[in-house]
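Q: Joint fold for the lines below.
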Amino acid sequence: MSTTTAPATLPQANDPCWCGSGRKYKRCHKRSEGRVLPGEVTPMRAVPGHIARPPYADTGEYEPWDEGRVKSPEIIDAMRRSGRVASTVLREAGELVAPGVTTEEIDVYVHERFVELGAYPSTINYHGYPKACCTSVNEVICHGIPDSRPLQDGDICNIDVTGWIGGVHGDTNATFLVGDVDPESRRLVEVTEECTWLGIAAARAGRPLSDIGRAIEDHAKQHRYGVVKAFVGHGIGEQFHTDVQVLHYYDRRQDGIVMREGMTFTVEPMITLGSINYRIWDDDWTAVTSDGKRTAQFEHTILVTDGEAEVLTGGDGAVSPTAPWTR
Ligand code: MF3
Ligand code: CO
Ligand code: CO
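A: Joint structure:
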């Protein structure tokens, strides 16, 4: 006999699975227990015609060009504005996070709020991506697609928003606690935020880019956490993802890249409780840890100066170590 719903009392790891597959429970349904399951994804929402659209908006095809690493003062000024818009939308979206709220509901808010502020939600049709933000819950590392899954008490949920306004992108994310979260996950989220700010603090003109990854990795390692290598920070400006790549771990290949005043890029470490390896869901976007353990992330778009970096997504109410609303 075979059944699809788990019984109230579960087998021991080495006993046969309850589903009747004949495999050991630990090699069968135990693997998906407590995991985030894909929900239903609604069709892509339209962006009203009065909102200016980036080149990929209608085709979903992205054609990169050679964008300078050092931005002009005009572009930097535009990025201050797009950064502020993204930071506002992230803060407000974070306030919606609560048990029972679906990630789809969060996405609808993000979509409409960007439009209200005059921005195109950058992720819409970016390489065909269907939604206005990414919502990455628990073991989802990044690029989770908002869907019908209601957030559950005890989840952690990253919201990643990017807006395009004035011809430039602003990209920021934070991990939010859903209701009553266990201390181990809370600590992970806290340390991940610290890693992000330590990475940002290491950004300074004249220093090698590798300083950023070193700062992040050192802090993560002190807590015996993993640093995901497969996804990296990125140059940003007129393009969403452009040169340079910002590794969140130390790599001597980045010793030779010197940070310059006027560079703009993101710092967005993904930190794990367990494995740093990943798997991609059948939706071709959602990246999850291979061991199903939790992971957190924070992101800011920054401008390199000859002093402290300017956090372009650090506007009113930006995520900071002292912002109580992330806890
Ligand atoms: N905002 C993400 C980043 O930090 C990118 C999302 S692209 C998407 O780089 F297509 F997955 F939405
Ligand atoms: Co980014
Ligand atoms: Co992002």
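Q: Anything notable?
A: Confidence is low (pLDDT under 50) at residues 317-327. The pocket of cobalt (II) ion (ligand 3) is lined by residues 160, 162, 171, 173, 299 (CB under 6 Å).
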